User: Which sequence fits this backbone?
C-alpha cells in the first residue's frame, strides 16, 4: 500500500511537470518573432523609436540604424510605432516576420493653431515673438489664478510672487518702460480687452477659474502687439477659455488641495544679540554709564552689563515679563536684588571697570518667536464641476467653481464662487452665433489695515518682524501686552487679528456676444460686443482695543462702494485666400469703440457706539458727524481703426504688416489720435533645397520685426487742469473756494515705444529638440510724468511728456523630449532671459529726479541711499 501510494504521488507530480513543459512549448510555438527597419521620410534609419505590442506589456526600441526585433503573442497582434514629432502608426502583424516601416512628420506639430490677436495663425506662420502655453501646463499647478501658473514658463516674462490670498502678482514682459504709468501688460480674454480705469480693472483675472482656460498666448514684441496700438506697449497676454466639443456629453469634476508655508529667509537677531546691540548704542551715546568715565570729551569706554541699568535704560520697568527674559542672561544670588559677581580681567580694569562685575551670558536671554504668531500653514482648495456637449450645429461648455484660500498670514483669507458659460450655434450655413458669460462672487479679507494709525505701511507679518525678540506677546493669564518690551513706539500686532477687519466683497461679470457671417469661403465678417462689470463693497473696522488706534481715535469704521462698467464693440472683416497655389494672402480690418466709467463713494467715522455693527448703519452708530465723505466719477473712451496683412509666398517667405489709429479721450485736444505701425518678415529656411539635405533640421525660421506702440495711461481730465475744493477764512468767516489741482497741459500726448526684434525658431533631431533665440531693443519716448512745480508758481504739479528709456536683451528657450513611450515620458524645458533697462533722458534732457529715485543710466526705481 505504501509503494502504490508512492507511485501514485510520483505519477501525479510527473504529469504536472509534463503539462507545464508542453503548455510552454505550445505557447512558444504560437508566438512570433518580428524584426525589421524603421526609416524617416528620407529613408534614413530612425533610432529610439518605441515599438509596443498593443494591449500587452511587451515593447522594444529601435537601434541606431533603425533596426528592431520583438516577440508578439500571435499573428493577430498589432504593433504600435511611436516617435516624438512623427505620426504614430499601428500595423497588424499577420504573416509578416520582417517589416519595413516609414514614419512621416506629424504635421500637427507645425500646423498647431495659436491665437495672435483678432484671429489665429498656424504656429509655423507666426512672424512675431509669441509664446503659447497649453491648458495642460496651466492645470498642472495648484494655483488660484492664471498668472501664477505662468511663472517660469516663458523667457522674458517676470511674475512676482504675491502671497496675499485673492491678490494678483505683478507681471512684466521684457522689463519696465514707463516711469509714471503702468508697466502691466494688456490682458485680453476671449478677444475682449480688460479695461482699466484709475488703476482698477473692470474685470480681474482672479475671477477666472484656471480649469476653464484652454490656452494662453504671450505677445512680446511690437510687431505682434502693435495691433493693439496704444495698449500694447507693455506686451499682451491673450487668454482663451474652454468651449464645448462635438460628441457625447462630458461631465468632469476636478479638485486640488495644496498647502502653503512660510519660509524665513531673513536671519533675525535673537534676544541676546539685540540686547547687546542696544546696550552698545547706549554706551556709545553715553546713556549707559557703568564706568567712572563721565567726561563727554573723552571717547566712551565699554561699559559692563548691569541688570539694573538694562531695566532703567531700556524701558523694561514697564514690562516685567520682558525684563525677566533679559535677566535670564544674568546669574543671581537673590533674584532681582543681588546678582552673582565675578572678578574682572586686567584688560577690563584698564577700561575703567570695577574689580567685580555681574556674571552675564547673552545666550541665556529669552528669544520669542513673534513670526510664528503672525503666520500659519495656508490651505488652498480649488474645486470645479464642468459640462461639455456639442453636436454638428451647436456647442456648450458650462462650469461651476469654488475656491477657498486660508492665507499664510493669520488675518488674511479669500473665498470665491464662479460660473462660466460658453455657447456657440451654427444658425445657418453662413451664420454663427455665440455667447460667453463669466461671473464670480468673492470675499477677500486683507488683514490689518496698513494705512491706519500706527501700522504705517506694514501688514501683520511686517509688524511682527519689528517686535523685540526678548518680549512676550501675552502674560501668564493670556492677556495681550499692548507695548511689548515697554517700547511705546511698538504695538502688539497680534491684538489686531481680532480687533480689526478689512474686507472687500466683489461681484464681477464679463460677457461677450458675437455674430459671424461667412459671405464666401475666403471672406467673412464678425461683430463682437463685450461688457465688463465689477462692483466692490469695502469695509474697514477697528475695535476699541486695536493697537493701531491707541494713539488715535478708537472704534473707527469705513465703508465704500466702487462700481466699474465698460463695453467694447468691434467690427471685423477677414479676407483669406490663396492665389496660384503659391500666394497666400490674409487681411484683417477692424473698427473698435470702447467706453468705460467708474463711480465710487466712501465714508469714514470714529467713536462708534456699537462696535459689533462694524461699518453698517454708520449714521446712527456714531457720535457726531462723519470724519470724511467723498464721491467720484470718471469716464473715458477709446476709438480705433486697424488693418493687418499676412502674406506667404511658396509657404517659405512670410510678411506681416499692420497699422492702427487710436484716439483716446484722456489726452489733450490735437493730441488724441496717433498711428502705430509694425511689420515683420520670416523665412522658412528648412523648406529650401540647400537645407533639405540636413535631415537633422526639421524647422529653421529666422524672423525680424519692428513696430511702434503707445500708452495713454493717465487718468481722465488731467490735461484740462481739474479743480479741487479748498477751505479759507475771509475776515472772521470761513469760506469754500476752488483752486486748480494741476496746470492744464494742452500739449499732453502719447508715450511711444519703438521696438525691433530678431529671432530664430528651430526644431531639430526628429523634433526631439525645439527652441528659439531672440534679441530685442525697445526705446520709449515722450514719457508721461507728473512734474513738481516751484511753489512760487501757485501750482503743485503738471503732467508733461519728458524723457526717454531704453530696454533690451536676449531670450533663449529650449525644450527636449528625452524619453517618450507608452508607460513613461521625460521632457525638459529651459528658458533664459537677460534684460537691461535704463533711463536715457529725463527733465531738460539730462537732469536726474532725486525725489522719485530716477537717475540717468540707471534702471527705473532703483534703491538709493
Assistant:
Amino acid at each position: 500500500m505504501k509503494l502504490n501510494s508512492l507511485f501514485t504521488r510520483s505519477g501525479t507530480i510527473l504529469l504536472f511537470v509534463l503539462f507545464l513543459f508542453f503548455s510552454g512549448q505550445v505557447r512558444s510555438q504560437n508566438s512570433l518573432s518580428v524584426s525589421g527597419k524603421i526609416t524617416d521620410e528620407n529613408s534614413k534609419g530612425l533610432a529610439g523609436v518605441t515599438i509596443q505590442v498593443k494591449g500587452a506589456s511587451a515593447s522594444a526600441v529601435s537601434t541606431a540604424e533603425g533596426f528592431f526585433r520583438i516577440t508578439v503573442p500571435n499573428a493577430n497582434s498589432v504593433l504600435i510605432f511611436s516617435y516624438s514629432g512623427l505620426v504614430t502608426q499601428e500595423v497588424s502583424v499577420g504573416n509578416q516576420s520582417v517589416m519595413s516601416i516609414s514614419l512621416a512628420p506629424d504635421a500637427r506639430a507645425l500646423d498647431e493653431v495659436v491665437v495672435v490677436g483678432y484671429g489665429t495663425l498656424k504656429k509655423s506662420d507666426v512672424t512675431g515673438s509669441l509664446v503659447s502655453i497649453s491648458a495642460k501646463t496651466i492645470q498642472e499647478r495648484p494655483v488660484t489664478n492664471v498668472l501664477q501658473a505662468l511663472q517660469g514658463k516663458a523667457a522674458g516674462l517676470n511674475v512676482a510672487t504675491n502671497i496675499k490670498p485673492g491678490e494678483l502678482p505683478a507681471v512684466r514682459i521684457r522689463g519696465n518702460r514707463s516711469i509714471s504709468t503702468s508697466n502691466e501688460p494688456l490682458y485680453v480674454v476671449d478677444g475682449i480687452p480688460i479695461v482699466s480705469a484709475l488703476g482698477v480693472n473692470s474685470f480681474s483675472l482672479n475671477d477666472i477659474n484656471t480649469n476653464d482656460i484652454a490656452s494662453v498666448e504671450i505677445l512680446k514684441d511690437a510687431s505682434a502687439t502693435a495691433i493693439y496700438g496704444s495698449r500694447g506697449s507693455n506686451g499682451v497676454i491673450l487668454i482663451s477659455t474652454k468651449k464645448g466639443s462635438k460628441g457625447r456629453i462630458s461631465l468632469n469634476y476636478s479638485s486640488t488641495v495644496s498647502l502653503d508655508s512660510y519660509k524665513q529667509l531673513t536671519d533675525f537677531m535673537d534676544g541676546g544679540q539685540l540686547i547687546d546691540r542696544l546696550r552698545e548704542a547706549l554706551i556709545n551715546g553715553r546713556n549707559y554709564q557703568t564706568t567712572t568715565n563721565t567726561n563727554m570729551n573723552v571717547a566712551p569706554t565699554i561699559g559692563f552689563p548691569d541688570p539694573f541699568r538694562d531695566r532703567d535704560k531700556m524701558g523694561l520697568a514697564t514690562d516685567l515679563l520682558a525684563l525677566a527674559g533679559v535677566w535670564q542672561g544674568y546669574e543671581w544670588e537673590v533674584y532681582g536684588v543681588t546678582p552673582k559677581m565675578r572678578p574682572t580681567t586686567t584688560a577690563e580694569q584698564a577700561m575703567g571697570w570695577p574689580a567685580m562685575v555681574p556674571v552675564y551670558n547673552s545666550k541665556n536671554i529669552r528669544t520669542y518667536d513673534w513670526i510664528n504668531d503672525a503666520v500659519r500653514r495656508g490651505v488652498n482648495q480649488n474645486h470645479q464641476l464642468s459640462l461639455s456637449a456639442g453636436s454638428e450645429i451647436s456647442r456648450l461648455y458650462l462650469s461651476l467653481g469654488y475656491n477657498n484660500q486660508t492665507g499664510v498670514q493669520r488675518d488674511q483669507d479669500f473665498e470665491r464662487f464662479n460660473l462660466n458659460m460658453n455657447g456657440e450655434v451654427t444658425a445657418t450655413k453662413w451664420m454663427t452665433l455665440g455667447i460667453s458669460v463669466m461671473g464670480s462672487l468673492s470675499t477677500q479679507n486683507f488683514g490689518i489695515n496698513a494705512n491706519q494709525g500706527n501700522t504705517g505701511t506694514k501688514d501683520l507679518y511686517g509688524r511682527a518682524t519689528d517686535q523685540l525678540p526678548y518680549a512676550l506677546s501675552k502674560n501668564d493669564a493670556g492677556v495681550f501686552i499692548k507695548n511689548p518690551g515697554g517700547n511705546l513706539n511698538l504695538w502688539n500686532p497680534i491684538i489686531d487679528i481680532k480687533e480689526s477687519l478689512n474686507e472687500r466683497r466683489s461681484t464681477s461679470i464679463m460677457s461677450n456676444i458675437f455674430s459671424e457671417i461667412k459671405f464666401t469661403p475666403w471672406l467673412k465678417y464678425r461683430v463682437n460686443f463685450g461688457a465688463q462689470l465689477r462692483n466692490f463693497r469695502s469695509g474697514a473696522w477697528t475695535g476699541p482695543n486695536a493697537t493701531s488706534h491707541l494713539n488715535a481715535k478708537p472704534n473707527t469704521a469705513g465703508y465704500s462702494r466702487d462700481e466699474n462698467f465698460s463695453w467694447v464693440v468691434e467690427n471685423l472683416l477677414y479676407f483669406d485666400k490663396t492665389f496660384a497655389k503659391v500666394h497666400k494672402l490674409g487681411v484683417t480690418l477692424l473698427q473698435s469703440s470702447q467706453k468705460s466709467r467708474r463711480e465710487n463713494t466712501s465714508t469714514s467715522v470714529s467713536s462708534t457706539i456699537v462696535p459689533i455693527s462694524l461699518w453698517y448703519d454708520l449714521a446712527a452708530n456714531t457720535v457726531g458727524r462723519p470724519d470724511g465723505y467723498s464721491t467720484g466719477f470718471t469716464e473715458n473712451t477709446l476709438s480705433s481703426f486697424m488693418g493687418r496683412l499676412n502674406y506667404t509666398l511658396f509657404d517659405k517667405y512670410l510678411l506681416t504688416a499692420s497699422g492702427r489709429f487710436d484716439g483716446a479721450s484722456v489726452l489733450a485736444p490735437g493730441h488724441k489720435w496717433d498711428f502705430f505701425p509694425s511689420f515683420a518678415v520670416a523665412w522658412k529656411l528648412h523648406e529650401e533645397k540647400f537645407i533639405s539635405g540636413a535631415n537633422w533640421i526639421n524647422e529653421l525660421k529666422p524672423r525680424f520685426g519692428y513696430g511702434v506702440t503707445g500708452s495713454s495711461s493717465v487718468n481722465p481730465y488731467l490735461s484740462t487742469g481739474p479743480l479741487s475744493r479748498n477751505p479759507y477764512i475771509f475776515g472772521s468767516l470761513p469760506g469754500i473756494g476752488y483752486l486748480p489741482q494741476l496746470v492744464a497741459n494742452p500739449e499732453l500726448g502719447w508715450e511711444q515705444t519703438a521696438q525691433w526684434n530678431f529671432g530664430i525658431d528651430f526644431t531639430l533631431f526628429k523634433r526631439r529638440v525645439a527652441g528659439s533665440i531672440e534679441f530685442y531693443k525697445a526705446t520709449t519716448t515722450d514719457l508721461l510724468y507728473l512734474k513738481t512745480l516751484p511753489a512760487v508758481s501757485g501750482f503743485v504739479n503738471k503732467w508733461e511728456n519728458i524723457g526717454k528709456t531704453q530696454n533690451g536683451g536676449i531670450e533663449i528657450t529650449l525644450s527636449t523630449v528625452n524619453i517618450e513611450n507608452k508607460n513613461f515620458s521625460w521632457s525638459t524645458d529651459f528658458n533664459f532671459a537677460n534684460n537691461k533697462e535704463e533711463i536715457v533722458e529725463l527733465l531738460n534732457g539730462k537732469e536726474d529726479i532725486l525725489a522719485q529715485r530716477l537717475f540717468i543710466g540707471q534702471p527705473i526705481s532703483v534703491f538709493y541711499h
